[in-house]
Specification:
CATH class of the largest domain: Alpha Beta
Strand order of the largest sheet: 2-1-3-12-11-4-5-10-8-9
Number of strands: 12
CATH architecture of the largest domain: 3-Layer(aba) Sandwich
Pfam family, one: Iso_dh
Organism: Aliidiomarina sanyensis
Enzyme class: oxidoreductase
CATH superfamily of the largest domain: Isopropylmalate Dehydrogenase
Low-confidence stretches: none
Distance between the termini: 24 Å
InterPro entries: IsoCit/isopropylmalate_DH_CS, IsoPropMal-DH-like_dom
Mean pLDDT: 95
Structural class: alpha/beta
Largest sheet: 10 strands, mixed
Family: Belongs to the isocitrate and isopropylmalate dehydrogenases family.
Radius of gyration: 20 Å
Helix content: 40-55%
Order of helices and strands: EHEHHEHEEEEHEHEHEHEEHHH
Shape: globular
Length: 334
């Protein structure tokens, strides 16, 4: 029976790069069927809301979603669509791998780091945001739970064990944030004892950022809280050439959403200029999640060869070709 994938093309360059990924998945013989759904500005124009009920129903019904970048309008009354999706479906684990590709403009070689970010709690969740009527002060609340901390840390150790990784680094600020970050660190230490085959390390977040820039090779799997993970995962993307080379997965008990992590780039939308690598890499994550390792490896090898040889690459990769040519180069190899 064919797996049905919910596909959210998204805004800006989203439809173009999603179409690229769909062509590649089909060429690799994945045998998916697709149910398309709207979200973001496209959905606002068509349905009067950023995240229509029918889109939520499609995500829940199929369990697996491939998503392009979404635009949340700036200003009051608009909640982040991505945050809403994570909360609605309990997508507690954000998985952001970065790998070096020869042929990119990255400053480092042999980068292979996975950042695992708790996705539903902490400061980034937007809990308790309030601004005084006179504008003199503002506040927000950071709340973590023991169960949330344990769940994400176990997820990180299980992933490390499953993929043959050697080390998990828990990133925190427990020296200052003694309650919230302190709880995360304490739970991480407890959980680590159940995985004697995996080396456990702990590091303060500011030191982590410095060492990622100076000595990124010391990291393997990073697990951290919501806000720190948001920052660190983008820093790691910078090590391999930027957000265009970084995919993301949001995983819960019943649903998983795989996405391009960069913005919708409305300035180049519809111009056949976008690099689709992020969403192609996200589709590879999706295949691995579904146990389709052979197809995932086939697509990854084709993508690597296109970038390394510079065959029909996009401008950000040093070439002068567009999305369709880049996609065709991958299809030719498949």
């Amino acid at each position: 029976m064919s797996q049905t994938i919910t596909v959210i093309p998204g805004d800006g360059i989203g439809p173009d790069i999603i179409e690229s990924a769909i062509q590649i998945l089909d060429k690799a013989g994945c045998g998916f069927t697709y149910e398309y759904a709207d979200a973001g500005l496209v959905a606002l124009d068509k349905h009067g809301e950023l995240l229509p009920p029918q889109t939520l129903e499609a995500i829940e019904r199929n369990g697996i979603t491939l998503k392009g970048p979404l635009t949340t309008p700036v200003g009051g009354g608009f909640t982040s669509i991505n945050v809403t999706l994570r909360k609605h479906f309990g997508l507690y684990a954000n998985v952001r791998p970065v790998n070096s590709f020869k042929g990119t403009k990255a400053r480092y070689e042999n980068i292979d780091i996975i950042t695992i970010r708790e996705n539903t709690e902490g400061m980034y969740s937007g809990l308790g945001q309030r601004t005084a009527e006179d504008g003199s002060e503002a506040e927000a609340m950071s709340k973590v739970t023991r169960s949330g901390c344990e769940r994400i840390v176990r997820f990180a150790f299980d992933l490390a064990r499953r993929e043959g990784r050697k080390k998990v680094t828990a990133v925190h600020k427990a020296n200052i944030l003694k309650t919230t970050s302190g709880m995360f660190l304490a739970v991480a230490r407890e959980v680590a004892q159940d995985y004697p085959d995996i080396q456990f390390d702990e590091m303060i977040v500011d030191a982590t950022c410095m060492k990622l820039v100076m000595s990124p090779e010391i990291f393997d799997v990073i697990v951290t809280t919501n806000l720190f993970g948001d920052i660190i995962s983008d820093l790691c993307a910078g090590l391999v050439g930027g957000l265009g080379m970084a995919p993301g997965a949001n995983i819960g008990e019943k649903c998983a959403i795989f996405e391009a992590v960069h913005g919708s780039a409305p300035d180049i939308a519809g111009q056949n200029l976008a690099n689709p690598s992020s969403v192609i890499l996200a589709s590879i994550q999706m295949l691995e999640h579904l146990g389709m390792q052979e197809q995932a490896k086939k697509i990854l090898n084709a993508l690597r060869d296109v970038i390394e040889t510079g065959d029909r690459t996009t401008r950000d990769l040093g070439g002068n070709h567009g999305t369709t040519d880049f996609t065709q180069a991958i299809l030719d190899r498949l």
